[in-house]
Amino acid sequence: MLQCPFDDDYDPTGAVTIRTRKFLTNRLLQRKQMVVDVLHPTRANVSKDELRDKLSAMYKAPKDQVIVFGFRTQFGGGKSTGFALIYDTKESLKLEPRYRLVRFGLAEKRPASGRKLRKERKNRAKKFRGTAKKAKSEAGKKK
């Protein structure tokens, strides 16, 4: 564990206060969304995993339906502000961008195809129009 040599207040297990504001129940997207203020005067920062734990306890929701992102620490430290989404159902998580689901282990990362392969497929598809173009690009993926 790294500790700042000139900072006597540093305590990695220190208390954390979480406040939410601009709370909105978004019925169309089946989620609650809010701005999250995290006060952590004795810590450098708070992990997203820990924030998800605390928010799921605060709002009585399963941890895997809580998504936190966009956290910025204020200059001088001690306070971070970010955004949280709490989905009503596991099914409504499909509205969340895939990269965020991968980040929290809720989805598998797609295997990346090579740059050259992508370019070749793109150039092969240029020779066709409409549905034939789609069929040819799908055939290229199966190879």
List the defining traits of the structure above.
ribonucleoprotein; eRP_eS24_sf; alpha+beta; 143 residues; four-stranded antiparallel beta sheet; BQ2448_2611 protein; ribosomal protein; Ribosomal_eS24; 4 helices
SSE layout:
Elements: E1 17-26, E2 31-39, H1 48-58, E3 66-73, E4 79-87, H2 98-103, H3 115-125, H4 130-142
Antiparallel strand pairs: 1-2, 2-4, 3-4
Helix pairs in contact: 3-4
InterPro entries: eRP_eS24_sf, Ribosomal_eS24, Ribosomal_uL23/eL15/eS24_sf
Region (Disordered): 112-143
Pfam family, one: Ribosomal_S24e
Give your account of this protein's structure.
The protein has 143 residues and is an alpha+beta fold. The protein folds into two domains: 87 residues, Alpha-Beta Plaits (2-Layer Sandwich), CATH 3.30.70; 31 residues, no CATH class. The protein has a four-stranded antiparallel β-sheet, covered by helices on one side. Strand 1 and strand 2 form a beta hairpin. Helix 3 packs antiparallel against helix 4. The protein starts with 16 loop residues before the first strand and ends with a helix. The mean pLDDT is 88.
CATH architecture of the largest domain: 2-Layer Sandwich
> What is the name of the CATH class of the largest domain?
Alpha Beta
How are the strands of the largest sheet arranged?
Answer: 1-2-4-3
Uncertain runs are: none
Mean pLDDT over the full residue set: 88
CATH topology of the largest domain: Alpha-Beta Plaits
Protein name: BQ2448_2611 protein
Family: Belongs to the eukaryotic ribosomal protein eS24 family.
Biased composition (Basic residues): 112-134
Pfam families: Ribosomal_S24e (PF01282)
